[in-house]
Specification:
- The chain is of the alpha/beta class and 739 residues long.
- The protein has three domains: 1-261, no CATH class; 270-494, Rossmann fold, CATH 3.40.50; 501-726, P-loop containing nucleotide triphosphate hydrolases (Rossmann fold, 3-Layer(aba) Sandwich), CATH 3.40.50.
- Helix content is 58%, strand content 9%.
- The protein contains 34 helices and 13 strands.
- The strands form two sheets. Strands 3-4-2-5-6-1-7 form a seven-stranded parallel β-sheet, with helices on both faces.
- α31 links the parallel β12 and β13 (664-671).
- It is globular.
- It starts with a helix and ends in a 13-residue tail after the last helix.
């Protein structure tokens, strides 16, 4: 009997030991991921500290000793201190109490007051000084920081999920493994007391359940991949710098999070009333279907859309409204919603589909053009994110209640007129959808009548309570009145780093008129004419329409814009389009071309900077891309892709440089299906290579053309491919043409 009982315990013990062993392996994997992530974070902090300390010291060395009077409300007498040669706060702190006490006429009490005041300024500097990573002058300390950040940025949002899972798993498994310890050995279990044995068996059961759930959810694979990602560094310093240039916003966001330098909470939450802000904060945000990390204010914006259900997101241009919308859609998809609709101007249809595909796992369905009704039927049957235009929406039946998880309306100020058919169509869809997100970068605070029309589609009660007096009472009263449905943040309030560079490819579908002009250029074998065909018939130009929208949106936010093109006649067309219209239009200066004397060019730039409020500067990219500082502009529009990566880089660098006080948004206007798309594809690898060289000035200066594409070779290849695609030929040889 005793032997059989022993063998029975042995059989049970083996099963229990296997369960405990599996749990222990999962626990160690979780701890390993958490540890790897912790070490990666500490590496960033270690690299950041000397840079931050140096910036703080530089700040203190620039503060005159007289500022100590302000801190102590004028109680200090600092004449003797200044005469002793200590002229800055930094020098006072470095001198310390002993040297200060040696200054004639300075007693111990004064020394204590001086140092206390100086330390207060030092503490303030530590809290407020931001680290700027200068891509134009990389040096060992900043390179170390970029490399440390690169590990976490490259690991991406999946690693963030893995770390959260690892911390949760380790926290739950740790106590269970301790309780199950007797079951890990045969003899321990045999000699354990009844209570200990019961606790051990209970813990084993919980470990079995937890391990099983983790296995079904793919947690072991997630943790293993995270460990690999966290231990993988950039191949070279140059690779890290190139990635930083391409994704600087992600680097700065991570840097702010790790350093604890986050935006003012009230500003990042749009100064919402406490009760609404708290409701939004507690809204869960699922990132299962999302492929991009969010900044804090962006996560709050997505939560606002989910918690409040029908809202207007009015963030200033450049803060990522599209990303916030996608975050809300992916959350709803994780909850089981299958159908979503995005309504936007035709000019941004392609942008939306590309952003959805790049930033999420959701299916994007373009519902536009002659086959739009077939596409709509396909979307209804299969689900996904339908992307359509205001005009096309009018031809589709409004959904039944609960069919569409969320309706997103981009450039929502386009439907502010309730009498317009497009507005009526959007209103009908909004009524049938449980959640609606209107998006507009156009400030609405001073347009109460128009704003009320938008709000009425979302919440009639808020609209009726919103009167002219709310706007007249000031922004605080206005925000409180519209808080249930309206969230707006400004760049200056939520971006804690020095200016970042945000680059957007604006893909446009050519109009029929554009296509006709383009086909003629292809038939003639004229490469330069192909590149500018999209502007040669201004009345129906898709690119020109998008350019007007971008300039208008920048103007509404008080921003200045510089428009670059390789071609003088394109700049002429742009200038005529922007100067036609109402008398209060945005001032347009230029164009700056190669025929403008150098001295005059600088005067034009100075005049542009001197304009109070928004303005537009037209500039030929080769003539104005080098030597002129245009940091007055925070929006850059490039009318067509350039043949050499150096040209675009130098042009953008005119605005994105030291002295710029706002993040720079770069918009490159591109047409689908033709020369622009072929050029972009050919230049992708060359651009990355150029960025690598450009970060090392000595190499860039020694080999300026090392990474440029041959103009003639590119032109010939593209002309041949486009003539074949369009079925047109011309025997005339390719002729170079002056811009």
């Amino acid at each position: 009997m005793r032997g059989r009982r022993g063998r029975g315990w042995g059989r049970v013990g083996r099963g229990e030991r296997d369960v405990v062993a599996r749990g222990a392996r999962l626990y160690e994997a979780a701890r390993s991921v958490a540890g790897d992530h912790g070490r990666a974070v500490e590496a960033v902090r270690a690299a950041l500290k000397p840079i931050h300390d140096a910036e703080v010291q530089r700040e203190l060395d620039a503060i005159p000793v007289s500022r100590l009077q302000d801190v102590t409300e004028g109680r200090l007498r600092l004449g003797s201190v200044e005469k002793s040669g200590l002229r800055t706060v930094g020098q006072v702190l470095e001198a310390g109490p002993y040297r200060l006490r040696q200054i004639p006429g300075v007693g111990q009490r004064t020394v204590d007051q001086i140092l206390a005041a100086a330390r207060r300024l030092s503490e303030a500097a530590h809290e407020t000084v931001a680290v700027h990573i200068d891509v134009d002058r990389p040096e060992p300390r900043t390179t170390a920081l970029v490399r440390a950040l690169h590990v976490l940025v490259e690991a991406g949002p999946d690693t963030r999920r893995a770390v959260d899972t690892a911390n949760d798993m380790a926290g739950r498994l740790g106590p269970l493994l301790a309780a199950a310890k007797p079951a890990a050995g045969r003899f321990r279990m045999l000699f354990a007391g009844q209570d200990t044995k019961a606790r051990a068996l209970s813990a084993v059961a919980e470990i079995r359940t937890l391990s099983g759930e983790a296995g079904q959810a793919g947690v072991p694979g997630l943790l293993a991949q995270a460990s690999v990602d966290l231990l993988r560094g950039p191949s070279t310093d140059v690779a890290a710098w190139v990635d930083f240039e391409l994704r600087s916003a992600e680097y700065y966001s991570l840097l702010a999070e790790i350093s604890g330098r986050v935006p003012d909470a009230a500003a990042s939450e749009g100064f919402l009333p406490d009760e609404i802000a708290e409701r939004v904060r507690t809204q869960h945000l699922d990132d299962t279907h999302r492929r991009v990390s969010l900044r804090g204010y962006q996560a709050f914006g997505a939560r606002f859309a989910l918690a409040q259900r029908k809202v207007i997101l009015g963030d200033e241009m450049g803060l990522g409204k599209t990303i916030q919308a996608i975050a809300a859609l992916t959350h709803l998809a994780a909850e089981g919603q299958s159908h979503f609709m995005v309504v936007c101007p035709a000019s941004v249809l392609v942008n939306w589909t590309r952003e959805i595909e790049a930033r999420s796992t959701l299916r994007a369905m373009l519902i536009h053009g002659p086959d739009r009704h077939d596409a709509f039927a396909d979307w209804k049957g299969r689900g996904g994110v339908g992307v359509t235009t205001f005009d096309a929406l009018r031809g589709f039946p409004a959904p039944g209640g609960g069919e569409v998880g969320m309706l997103v309306v981009d450039e929502a100020h386009s439907v502010k007129n309730p009498k317009a058919l497009r507005s009526q169509a959007v209103a009908q869809w909004t009524e049938r959808c449980d959640r609606t997100l209107f998006m507009t970068g156009t400030p609405m605070e001073n347009r109460v009548a128009e704003f009320r029309n938008l709000v009425r589609m979302l919440d009639r009660g808020v609209a009726e309570s919103l009167g002219e007096r709310d706007a007249l009472a000031g922004s605080v009263a206005f925000r409180k009145a519209v808080a249930p449905v309206y969230l707006r943040r400004n760049q200056a309030d939520v971006l804690t780093e020095l200016p970042s560079l945000q680059q957007t490819d604006e893909w446009e579908t050519l109009s029929a008129s554009d296509e006709e002009a383009y086909r003629e250029a292809v038939r003639a074998g004229n490469f330069m004419a192909m590149r500018r065909a999209a502007y040669m018939r201004p009345k129906k130009s898709a690119k020109l329409e998008r350019l007007r929208e971008l300039v208008q949106e920048a103007g509404e936010s008080g921003q200045k814009t510089v428009v670059f093109s390789n071609f003088k006649d394109v700049l002429r067309v742009v200038g005529e389009a922007l100067t036609a219209g109402p008398a209060d239009r945005i001032p347009v200066l230029g164009p700056l071309t190669g025929s403008v004397p150098a001295g005059r060019r600088q005067q034009v730039v100075d005049d542009f900077a001197a304009v109070s409020g928004p303005a537009v500067l037209l500039a030929q990219i080769q003539a104005a891309g080098v030597g002129l500082n245009m940091q007055a502009a925070s929006v850059v529009i490039i009318c067509e892709p350039q043949i050499k990566p150096t040209i675009e880089h130098q042009a953008v660098a005119r605005a994105h440089r030291m002295g710029q006080v706002r993040p720079v948004s770069v918009h490159r206007l591109l047409a689908t299906g033709g020369v622009d798309e072929r050029m972009v594809k050919m230049l992708e690898d060359k651009t990355r290579l150029f960025d690598a060289y450009a970060r090392i000035s000595a190499v860039a200066e020694a080999t300026p053309d090392a990474v440029d594409v041959s103009d003639t070779e590119m032109a010939r290849r593209i002309i041949e491919e486009e003539q074949a695609r369009l079925g047109v030929t011309d025997e005339r040889p390719v002729q170079p043409e002056q811009p």
